[in-house]
Amino acid sequence: MIDFFPFICLISYLAAIRSMELGIAKSNENWMKQRGGVEFGASHYRVMVLMHMLFFVAFILEKIGLNQGLSPIWPVILFSFVLVQFLRVWVIVSLGRYWNTKIIVLPNAKVIMKGPYRFLRHPNYCVVSLELLVIPLLFSSYITAILFTLLNILMLRVRIPEEERALRSLTEYEGIFQEHNRFIPKYVK
To answer: Membrane spanning segments where (predicted)?
Structure first.
């Protein structure tokens, strides 16, 4: 199978990156909690983690079980994936110690307004949404792409309002983003 090597490379890359991100998140969680950070959304966090784990299981099973090949437009999809990875790094660097996979808010912390946060309220969720679509599409895994895009929409319907409430309750978030739509880009000074 000609596309088995790229598939293994992608899965290996994703496993390494996710492991590194979890290490960063844990370090940031400890740093924030030592300074009084408050966690929100713990009740849905496990469901979100399970969803992301099942994404990889479904993707691998669909790829191998249905013998899915590389997409006919794989160069375009791969280019999109690479752009999303740059956006992911931009998000993590912009938030610095405040970036996390959990919703943890440091009371009275200054709201981050640099990097992609000048344009979008939740660019990290944009990255995740794009990845859940582009990764399986790279290998023609349409069932995984559709199923987990829909599941992610359901998850974000819970997660984003929870994060918004958390930020409004402990920071000046509401005043800063008063006229800023959730998903529609708008430059904020």
So the answer is: 43-61, 73-93, 133-155
Strand pairing partners for 39?
Answer: 104
How does pLDDT run across 132-186, given as a tens digit for each residue?
999 999 999 999 999 999 999 999 999 999 999 999 999 988 777 665 554 555 5
H helices within the chain, ranges in order? Answer: 4-34, 42-65, 74-95, 123-138, 142-170, 173-176
Question: pLDDT, tens digit, for every residue of 83-126?
Answer: 999 999 999 999 999 999 999 999 999 989 899 998 888 999 99
**CA 105 to chain centroid:** 18
**Domains of the chain by start residue, with CATH:** 4-176 (1.20.120.1630)
What is this structure's pTM? 0.89
Separation of first and last alpha carbons in the chain: 51
Report whether 62 contacts 137 (CB < 8 A).
no
Buried b (16+ CB within 10 A) or exposed e, 35-66: eebeebbeeebeebeebbeebbebbeebbeee
In three state form, how does the secondary structure of 173-189 look? HHHHCCCCCCCCCCCCC
Question: 139 near 9, Cβ under 8 Å?
Answer: no
**Of 101, 147, 131, 94, whose CA–CA distance to 116 is shortest?**
94
